[in-house]
Design goal:
mainly alpha, elongated, membrane, transmembrane helix
């Protein structure tokens, strides 16, 4: 997934350009594209905590019977839960779309940087793995990929 540093920048620049690469924005190493990459593990953690909390509250309300005898007030928690689920689904959908793009753009920024970094991620490979992970397995591939990428980026660039 990574390539060694090279002294010939023109060859690297040509290898990251392509039909799709030309459509995507160019970024510098200091850009904030890595925020989208960092959002994936954070979303997985918050989504898991939300799911566990939702399950515990639902189980407790079922076992104890809280909220079932309140008439119209018993419907409000249901609508609140539905709105929360819809919000989480929309955020997850947005991350699914943006994560592979952010991975590609940020990896390309590091690879094409004028600074001679030891780590040169292959933007096409990282972007395709991120796309495959986001589409097929959701968090099984994307969370470890995002954490690995952010770790290597921190070692190389210093941020995050």
């Amino acid at each position: 997934m990574d390539s060694p540093p090279s002294t010939n920048r023109s060859v690297e620049r040509q290898s990251t350009d392509g039909a799709i690469g030309d459509l995507l924005p160019r970024a510098s190493v200091d850009s904030k594209w890595w925020y989208w990459i960092a959002a994936v593990p954070l979303f997985a953690l918050l989504g898991t905590l939300f799911g566990v909390t939702f399950a515990v509250v639902g189980l407790l309300s079922f076992v104890v019977g809280v909220g079932f005898d309140a008439g119209i007030l018993s419907v409000l928690p249901f609508f609140a839960a539905v709105l929360a689920v819809v919000f989480v689904a929309l955020v997850g959908g947005l991350l699914t779309l943006v994560f592979p793009l952010a991975m590609y753009v940020d990896a390309r920024a590091i690879t094409e940087s004028t600074t001679d970094y030891e780590w040169r991620p292959d933007p096409t490979l990282y972007g395709l793995v991120a796309l495959a992970g986001a589409v097929t397995t959701t968090f099984v591939v994307t969370v470890p990929l995002a954490l690995y990428y952010l770790y290597k980026r921190h070692e190389t660039v210093g941020t995050p």
